[in-house]
Amino acid sequence: MATSSGVVEAERPGIALMVGLAAVRLAASLFVPLIAFVVLWQGFLFLRDTDAPKPVVAGVAIVWGVGGVALLYVVANWVVGRLPSRWGGRVLPFVFVGPAIAILFAYLLIPTILTLVYSFQDGASKNWVGVDNYVFAVTNPSMLEAIRNNVLWLAVGTGGSVSLGLLLAILADRVAFERLAKLLIFLPMAISFVGAGVIWRFMYAFRPAGEEQIGLVNALLGAFGIAPQGLVQLQFWNNFLLIAILIWAQTGFAMVILSAALKGVPAELLEAARMDGATEVQVFQKVVIPTIRGSIITVSTTIAILTLKIYDIVTTMTNGNFGTEVIATLQFKQSFTFFDYGKGAALAIILLLAVTPVIWYNLRRLRGQEGFR
Amino acid sequence: MKRALLFIAAAALAVSACTGGATPQPTAGPTTGPGESDAPAPTDTSLAGTKVEVFGAFRGDEGTRFEESFKAFEDATGVDVLYSGSDQFETLVNTRAEAGNPPDIAAFPQPGGMRRLAAAGFLTPLPQEIIDAIDANYGPGWKETGTGDDGNVYGVFHRVNIKSLVFYPKKAFEAAGYTAPTTWDELTALSAQIKTAGSSPWCVTMESGGATGWVATDWVEDIMLRSAGPETYDKWVTHEIPFNDPAVKEAVETLGSIWLDSTQVYGGTTNILSTNFGEAATPMFENPPKCWLLKQGSFITGFFPDAIKADLDAEVGSFAFPAIDPQYGTPALGGGDQFVMFKDRPEVRAFLTYLTTGASGSTWAAAGGALFPHKDQDLSAYASALDRAAAEQLLAADSFRFDGSDLMPAAVGAGTFWKGMVDYVSGSKDLDTVLSEIDASWP
Predict the structure, then answer these.
(1) Contact: B210, A315; criterion CB under 8 Å
(2) Which residues on adjacent β-strands are paired with residue B108?
């Protein structure tokens, strides 16, 4: 700061005033947040210890929660406003991003780190056991079965949904009732995997020979004179019957995204290719696919992550019996049925490691796009 | 836990199916029967105005039945008992204990949950007066099941169930001239008779979602008790003998001799594995029955077809799963919720003492869907003859053991044992492999 000697005299009493003002400002800046904090803390204490009727508690919780967030923002904003503008400009972004970072930290980072810690401890999270849980994870027969099945889900589930989705997107593009066709194919997307599992249990249902078959598949087999089969009990092949449910539910998603991408392929491009004498197959392979490559990768990685984490379908259909176990079902059983948090955490970490490359690849691709620069 | 929930669902159905006409008079005063010295003093009002919070796993109709059952206690003492039930009981009770906010009393469906919290020091051992009441009024087995690893007694049993029952379609059974067997040989002869007559003796189905396997493990436990005896059974559930011990193998093979024989079980193994356990009885009540015998817990009547439930006593008969080795007699296998004390206050003690009396079960017995283990209970309180027969069987059993898979560590009892039985029944693994895998999985 450059101050000319001429104004120094005039500023002397001003400095005292400024110091005084700054002290008041500082006090106020501390006092107001302090009051806000006390109010929030009292609210917390009330909610924690109260015996008040439930509606009152609910009401207070809503006011305290919503009002508390607003109060925090107003107070933080006000404090920043007190700051010299140079500092205010620097601090303000953190006031707005801070809560999001804090929440990410509290609900994502800390649990991940704790899970990692638990994975090196015993079932009760008391003693350190080194890599025992990981040794279990790669030697236990159920776990080996689960890894094999997850690879099946990844390959067949992702491959099936994306290729079928692409095929349907192309076909739907060329029929008169495009909207209706897409709607019907997209519809299963709206059903949760648990719901889908319940529906498909009926598809694969078994009744002893001689009784009326209530399962569609066995009813069809019966129409051809084939004895009813316990479909979900057919070891190894039953995995594909379960994967079929995922494909049924996810094809619509792949189709909608890919269909939008297909419509974005410039007509001139296609026309130019055709004028150059390319066949329809060549146009598709050499022009269409490269153009929509980004969308295909996005859809594939999304479904790939889904298949690695697959849990609901297996649990509702077979609970992992008959050789259909996957990593997530084993993880749930270890943590919440057997209360072995160590093994459960180790499986969770393995699952996380399996998904990470896919996410990393996705992020790297996204970085190339506008919003993430 | 899962099994407890199933049981709850089953019993809730049973309860709702019963005609609600009976309005029993709660008898707070001393009732007839032996060992009646421990009844709570009904005129003691020194505890009036105090509160006892009870937390358990049963909800809905069952919770209401339970609340009715302690109404007499509240009226007599002035203590306000607040019961709440949750389907997430096991998780919540752990969280609440660790957060320093436990209920006064919790009702554990599985002994493992009680033992874990007792070992962690959250539970208060029962005072001698309540232990005396248990000694006086319960058969053998109940106190032992309520005992923690440190040797202290923690749990009081109230509503219980029995699994060693075989149900049959009474009308058709009698019309065919069959008689209920009392020995294993008679049972085998009856099976042969039914086969000769052209249908399957047994109704067996075991699908149960996330808990698939328990039907098979219940069978194995009941057979173990009868073929190897209660002492070997105790060693088995505590892993003092390996899981692939010849005694265990023999028990599973006995199960296999019935289950894996497609002439013995309606629909064969595919049907056993695909059909829900609750639907097992459906072919039993067809005309003529496609299968005749259903071994299940007392709660299964809640899953019978509506027409059968409407007239249960006329349609359904039951007998005790017969003895195999005569030296072990006819044991009973069962389960139940045990009430444990987190906080030791006079009113908490008074309530637990009340639960040890036969009078505390009479309203629920009248409503149906519940059995009680008390020696001094009034058997005429049971509205249903089936329930009464089950209660009589429970009291007359040569020995009683708690459901073994609930006593084993969850990784075995709700994990590899269930799954191993599925593998064995589906034929994907041979018995030796199954048993040694279960043995290896014991933590």
Answers:
(1) yes
(2) B338
Put simply, the answer to whether A206 touches B426 (Cβ < 8 Å) is no
Torsion angle of C-alpha atoms B61, B67, B70, B71, degrees rounded to 10: -110
Collect all residues of chain B within an 8 Å Cβ-Cβ radius of residue A232: 274
Answer yes or no: do A337 and B410 touch at CB < 8 A: yes
Chain A residues closer than 8 Å to B426 by CB: 233, 235, 321-322
Partners of A336 on chain B (C-beta within 8 Å) are 91
| Minimal CA separation from B175 to chain A, in Å | 25
Tell me whether domains B2-18+38-162+334-397 and B165-332+404-437 share a fold: yes
B2-18+38-162+334-397 in CATH: which number? 3.40.190.10
- Kindly calculate the radius of gyration of chain A based on its CA atoms and give it in whole angstroms: 30
Residue B219: which of B358, B20, B404, B9 has the closest Cα?
Answer: B404
- B437–A336 C-beta distance less than 8 A: no
Tell me the shortest Cα–Cα distance from B211 to chain A, in angstroms: 8
Which CATH number, 3.40.120.10, 1.10.10.10, 3.20.20.10, 3.40.190.10, labels domain B165-332+404-437? 3.40.190.10
- DSSP 3-state assignment of B332? strand
Q: Which fold has domain A132-372?
A: MetI-like fold (1.10.3720)
pTM of the model: 0.80
Q: Quick: pLDDT tens for B289-305.
A: 999 999 999 888 888 99
For residue range A91-145, list pLDDT tens digits in order: 888 888 887 888 888 899 999 999 999 999 988 888 899 999 999 999 988 899 9
DSSP A140-178: -HHHHHHHHHHHHIIIIIHHHHHHHHHHHHHHHHTSTTH
Helix (H) / strand (E) containing B157: strand B156-162
Q: From the CA of B39, how many Å to the nearest CA of chain A?
A: 33
